[in-house]
Known about the structure:
The chain is built from 1 helix and 4 strands; from the N terminus they run ββββα. By secondary structure, the protein is mainly β. The protein has a domain of 55 residues.
Amino acid sequence: MREEAAPHAGPRAKQDRDEVFVEFTKSICPLCKTPIDAQVNIRENKVYLRKRCRDHGEFEALVYGDAEEYLSSARFNKPGTIPLVDCRG
């Protein structure tokens, strides 16, 4: 009995994602208010925030209804700074 090699399937076709990653950010869990990492994504010309809490699972929220407007306003973003503390007592 002779074994035949399985036909070569070739490379898989690439499939586009239905969303585009924009940036990482910080957020809080809506239930326990713990600070957590989050992602900003664009899908269907809307901006969504996706985050995951270890204790409460994954959450997603619409944060901007117009992705183009959101991206054009990003030019006003600046890196975060540490607030000054008033040490005068």
